[in-house]
Write a structure and sequence with these properties.
Rossmann fold, binds S-adenosylmethionine, alpha/beta
């Protein structure tokens, strides 16, 4: 399973400009994919981005872990503006990290690290914020990922981000199953909005959860 995911993101890392065009909703093909498969029209795309970063305040000044950073195309421009004590951008794909390093030209306040979300190389409570954008639908061992992201968060810290959830949009569910899953970009089982809310409420003291089409956004306080 892990090998399949690694191979999939090796390819994405090597085609990073195409991936970035979709994530930024900027290329012709990317906008088509956003609209057709993810059902994110331009307006909904804006809402999706706002939802993904809703938990990160503009004046954040603490220690932040982003996992997975991917190519960093969405998060690096935001991190660049933060006066944070420490920002660690982690991912387990060497190729995605290479693309992120290239996208980080001029961004001096971030560190990159290769690691597995299921076994994070940090002490308990090392971060004030853990950000996970579009990661949990890809991670192979989701239980370990939930445990580890919570473990490295300090008491009172924030876990936020977004992920694909099943059952909200039939066309997206079909595309995920027939394309993303087959090629190793996504790994089942997926949360539904209800199971995600239940899980996060069982792990965190305060949970806000919403969705834009098939993407659930969450902000949780430990
Ligand atoms: C869909 S991309 C999301 C990247 C980025 N956050 C974004 O929204 O563009 C999923 C990422 O998860 C990473 N990934 C998959 N399994 C992982 C694991 N076990 N540990 C860390 N990263 C992992 C992949 O390498 C890939 O970069």
């Amino acid at each position: 399973m892990k090998d399949k995911i690694e191979r999939a993101y090796r390819r994405v890392g090597r085609l990073a400009s195409m991936y970035d065009g979709m994530m930024l909703n900027s290329s012709w093909l990317g906008r088509l994919a956003m609209k057709y498969f993810w059902q994110l029209t331009d307006e909904k795309y804006e809402a999706f981005i706002n939802q993904a970063f809703a938990g990160v305040p503009d004046d954040f000044s603490g220690r932040l872990l982003e996992i997975p950073v991917g190519t960093g195309v969405l998060s690096l421009p935001i991190f660049e503006r933060l006066k944070a004590e420490r920002i660690v951008c982690a991912d387990f794909s060497t190729e995605m990290l290479e693309a992120a390093r290239a996208n980080a030209a001029g961004v001096s306040n971030v560190e990159f690290m290769q690691c597995d979300v299921g076994s994070l190389p940090f002490d308990d409570g090392s971060f004030d914020h853990v950000l996970s954008i579009n990661g949990f639908h890809a991670f192979p061992d989701k239980e370990a990922a939930y445990e580890e992201t919570r473990r490295v968060l300090c008491e009172g810290g924030t876990f936020s981000g977004c992920m694909y959830v099943k059952g909200l949009n039939g066309r997206t569910d079909f595309f995920v199953e027939q394309f993303c899953e087959r090629h190793g970009f996504f790994t089942p089982p997926y949360e539904t909005l209800t199971t995600l809310a239940e899980r996060l409420k069982s792990m965190y003291s305060a949970v806000e959860i919403d969705h834009v089409e098939a993407f659930a956004g969450f902000v949780c306080r430990k």
